[in-house]
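Troubleshooting log. The previous structure file for this entry was overwritten by mistake, so regenerating from the original sequence record. Sequence copied from the archived sheet and checked twice against the printout by T.R.
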Amino acid sequence: MSKTVSLLSALLCTFIWGTTFIAQDTGMDNIGPFTFNAVRFFVGFLAIVPLAFLFEVKKFKSEFKLDFKTFTVLSFLIGLSLFLGSALQQVALLYTDVANAAFFTIFYVPMVPIIIFLFKKKSIHWSVWPSVVLCLIGGYLLTNFHDATVRLGDTLVILGALFWSTHIIFTGMIISKYNTPLTIGAIQTLLVALFSFIIGSIYEEFVFKNILNEIDSILYAGILSGGFAFVLQIYAQRNIDPAPAAIIFSLEGVFATIAAWFLLNQILGINNILGCFFILGGVLLSQLLPIMKKQY
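Regenerated output below.
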């Protein structure tokens, strides 16, 4: 039952991320990327922290007495990874088109098992590798990348994918030790907001009127994506290993494509539809084959 709830949490998290991509793209019409992320993640922090105090204060006090140093280090690492991943993705949207950004972001899918294999020396179920290939092919078809040109901003997206990978890996490590997803979510969103504010105050102007002009995008991206979606991710990874979790999260591209079709009236071509099926196939492969191996 817990595995099923985790899978549903991962799917809901991915759905929110996919639909938020539109808000991320439109939310920089009047403000810079670091200003957007600073306000977005601070809104997410404000949404989560009351729930963390309400449901996890007692658990926090009991669980962290023994190894508070490890919790602090891992919390900082997931906060830093989330800041770097989201910042690079947000800035890259200024220098490359959405098609390239969406395709290169999905590179975290192969990066996660490769990093785990190289640094943790942990065995990975063989189904992960064909699933990764299917997800990459699906991402290629979803974004119509063959019609786009490679730009310098794509380097930022690939680098960002590396930090999305480390965020997924560190999240798996911390949630396996401390079952406090709300507390972890509140800490990481606060760290991202602080880091973004520091960089934004140096290179951008915080104009309150301009921020208010983007309030709809900020609230959606902040409360749902910056806040609750990342808490759902943390909860999901309690029962799902990082490599298959990354494959499930690649459904973000599918949900983004469907949202663009539904909300922006963008046409779904045959390549886009095939891309959805390739990613769905990759996700199902990564989840079903390990179960079948246990049963037979």
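The chain has 13 helices and no strands. Archived copy saved in two places this time.
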